[in-house]
């Protein structure tokens, strides 16, 4: 059975770029959050992603690393909207950003009688092949996306149901990126070679998925990611910088950086002026229950929903914090008991009231 | 009159409760729900020497297992290679978004763990205990 890596990142605010990284080599540019082997082992990899938001359009650039072998593995990336275009990304944009603000934190690995199945399936919105990488844009809920993965021979990790549900409640759009290992080998790609991908996503609600970087990892495993934001102005972010989320850089982007980025293939959309922010995620998986919301409206109020801190209005709350019994049979029992008591009381009281008249 | 009404209400309530709790003994029935790769409830108490109907409801979009038994049983499954369980009542595969029913009679009192032995699931916390008394 194939293995599905689930990774992520998306984003932005008025002209913004985000880059995520997880794993060992500071300069690498890959997007593997976790490789779940048949024995349940997780190999942490480094993910680097750039996403930019300009005039209501998000530009998302990431690179998928060829991990070797002849099989297939993949990554699922939750997206805030349906991409209008998918193409090969610039050749060195991600590395140039890392060069501008190199990692300060040392990279290290983490410690550490039947009913019928649902018939729903994710809707395939778009399919694109870039080098040895098959990219599929899916639309559907968590069960739909999981079913798609299963149908395509992938195994999801045990935390996938909760994490996919977390994302599907906010956006039903996912990008499945599947590396064809044999095709990569046939193309002469070496172990660790990355394939950059650039997605253009119209969306009014940019955010950077962080929680999904912990998918497939144990609670005590560390998620480490570099998040670069390139915005028109200094961005307002949620959650605020705290334990597990560190601010490494916040300043006007240099003309040289922006010029360099614009000169890379397919990167001409980079603005002439931008604010560069770099956040570093270094958190145990168990604590990484949020995404990064960036205010793109100018109201300086990043969405708590986009940050994953609140559920969208109209969706049911999950979890067991209601305090009351949720057992429908129990509820029915009390309804029946109440009805029986009322019926008896009516029978007893009616004649009395009748006689009293 | 008020006292009489109150007594009638109390009697009705008592009758309603007995309808579920004072009935003659029947085969035990237990439902275990699976959501977000967790068993709910995680602890179940059943009588020894009586058949128990287990209804296993998998609300997750991924496959799970419900394997109940001794420590030796679980150790065997931790290193086993069986991809699917359908023949043994104490070893059940529950495909995504399905329900399976199995019948088990525990002859000896004690505690028996039930665990999902798919890779990574036990470590994630997917286990519980059947208390037989």
The major beta sheet of chain A can be summarized as: 6 strands, mixed
In whole angstroms, the N-to-C terminal distance of chain B is: 47 Å
The neighbouring-strand order within the major sheet of chain A is 8-9-11-6-1-10
Order of helices and strands of chain B: HEEEEEHEEEHE
Number of strands of chain B: 9
Kindly provide the radius of gyration of chain B, computed on alpha-carbon positions and rounded to a whole number of angstroms. Answer: 19 Å
Alpha-beta content class of chain A: alpha+beta
Strand share of the residues of chain A? Answer: 25-35%
| Shape by Cα distribution of chain B | globular
Task: Compute the number of structural domains of chain A.
Answer: 2
Labels describing this entry:
heterodimer; A: 357 residues; alpha+beta; 6-stranded mixed sheet; 4-stranded antiparallel sheet; B: 133 residues; Immunoglobulin-like; 3 helices
Would you mind describing this structure in some detail?
The radius of gyration of chain A is 24 Å and the shape is globular. By secondary structure, chain A is of the alpha+beta class. Chain A has helices at 93-100, 142-151, 160-168, 181-186, 255-263, 328-356; strands at 2-6, 35-36, 42-43, 49-54, 57-65, 72-79, 85-88, 123-130, 133-139, 154-155, 173-180, 194-202, 207-208, 222-231, 237-238, 245-252, 275-284, 292-294. Chain A folds into 2 domains: 2-111 and 119-294, no CATH class; 325-357. Chain B is α+β, with helices and mostly antiparallel strands. Chain B has one domain: Sandwich (Immunoglobulin-like). Chain B contains 3 helices and 9 strands, in the order αβββββαβββαβ. In chain B, the strands form 2 sheets. Chain B has a 5-stranded mixed sheet with strand order 3-9-8-5-6, with helices on one face. Chain B has a 4-stranded mixed sheet with strand order 2-1-4-7, with no helix packed on it. Chain B is globular. Chain B starts with a helix and ends with a strand. Chains A and B meet through α2, α3 and α6 of A and α1, β7 and α3 of B.
